[in-house]
Amino acid sequence: MELHVTPMLALLREHHLLDHVSNLTDFTATAVSYDSRRVEQGTLFFCKGNFMPKYLAMANEKGAIAYVAEQEYPEGQGLPAIIVKDEQKAMALLGAAFYGFPQNDLFIIAITGTKGKTTTAYFADHILKRATDDHVALFSTLDRVLGNQPGDKFKSDLTTPESLDLFHDMRAAVNNGMTHLVMEVSSQAYKKHRVYGLHYDVGIFLNITPDHIGRNEHPTFADYLHCKEQLLVNADTCVINAETQHFTDVYYTAKATTQPENIYLFARHGAKVDLPDDRQLDFEYRNDLEDLHESEFELAALSNRARHLGLDHRYTTSVPGDYNEGNAVAAVIASGLAGAKAEDAAATLNHVHIRGRMEMLTTKHHGTIYVDYAHNYASTKRLLAFLKRQTNAGKVTVVLGSAGDKGISRRPGLGKALTEEHPERIILTTDDPGFEDPMKIAKEIDSYIDHEQVGTVQFIMDRASAIKQAIDGSTDGDIVVLAGKGEDPYQKIKGVNTPYASDSKIAHDYIDEIEK
């Protein structure tokens, strides 16, 4: 891949991002990078994020051909300097151009929501694999799948990666013969302009509840909602859960840039939804069965355009939880818009397994262990309510913490969810503390718990020890809920991804040890 300076500057001017250029020469970049450690001869270097001038000096020494920044730096030492008004937007645009606009060769389904993105992505991925004969790429919180060879699948670092990495992976997917892409899009992806200029064939809006609000994320809920809604602004066709909070705002944001006939609305049968006078639901679904292993629902098309997709069917999903049925419905509709049939969904939804989402571990003498990524008010409350409803559980023990440096608004919600579902035992522990004191985070969560509504509350900061003590204290008929981390193989501690065995492995290994 390569990118000549002339179209580079033209693209920046078109988007009103170019400020000025210094030391201009006629050059062609043969690589792009924002990491000075990965610079090679001919690299266009981007001075982004937590940039320090010494990184530019290092890039220069390693063969950078030019740099893009919001100001000039002496460390550039005569390199062509492309000075822009917004570095992140410029990087997204130039990254897409360098990799030959790979998004144009993919049918892209993009998914946003406070909860359910990963589950929906996996549902859609499985449906489309069958419909396209395995020509689907997946960019999710858990995995990035760029093709069908073993080396084409790896664990994700971010829900939505930096723009250069995003377009690099899209290009790899196209080169591997992929024709479709299912991707999660976080609010931070819009806040940080990682997906600036990217357009989707189908955009899914699942839900919105207060989350990711804090000093290092979104300053207000309004900002969070605005960033979430940008996915709809950048989609040709929109699929919206009409039961979401702030539905009116979400719907009219979509309608501002998308024709009403290209906006599909769905909701559970009997749900109270506040639809505009000129709109009706396109789909409704009715729960027929739910237990700890699967759920079954009937999907019915209500509008003519919905009936045209031919998706009316009874579906069974292998991901338990009535709250996951809406995720499955969104995936079915979006996949149908991408060309899948009802048969593709019916044949695959009951074979989806998602690591760290409602994983169940059975024991001989210590009850049942559930591992789930629930990490905010809505997801934690739904998980606990579902388990209590389904299990007629004895004692309920919950092990959880909350991330440091971000999602600070989650902490009151976690305390509220625990209060409302009143487990008999709560163990507050370390999640991803970042640069914060995990005990201080735990104490903050505790301050929002009504201790008259719950059983005991303990503080065990070593997460592995907390899990083991939770299991030790449980007997037949009890349940232990390990919330927040799922299958995460590390903890973020003071800027370092510190290896961590994962909640699932720690619980599984400990059960094997004590029940031999």
List the helices and strands and how they pair.
Elements: E1 3-4, H1 5-14, E2 18-22, E3 28-29, E4 31-33, E5 43-46, H2 53-61, E6 64-69, E7 81-84, H3 87-98, E8 107-112, H4 117-132, E9 136-139, E10 143-145, E11 153-155, H5 163-175, E12 180-184, H6 187-191, E13 200-205, H7 221-233, E14 235-241, H8 247-257, E15 263-268, E16 283-290, E17 295-301, H9 304-308, E18 313-317, H10 324-337, H11 342-348, E19 359-362, E20 368-372, H12 377-391, E21 396-400, H13 410-421, E22 425-428, H14 438-447, E23 456-459, H15 463-472, E24 479-483, E25 490-493, E26 496-499, H16 503-514
Parallel strand pairs: 4-5, 5-6, 6-7, 8-12, 8-13, 9-12, 13-14, 14-15, 15-16, 20-24, 21-22, 21-24, 22-23
Antiparallel strand pairs: 1-3, 2-7, 9-10, 10-11, 16-17, 17-18, 19-20, 25-26
Question: What this model shows, in words?
Answer:
The protein is α/β, with parallel strands linked by helices. An eleven-stranded mixed beta sheet has the order 11-10-9-12-8-13-14-15-16-17-18, with helices on both faces. The longest helix is centred in the first third of the chain and has 16 residues, at 117-132. The protein starts with a strand and ends with a helix.
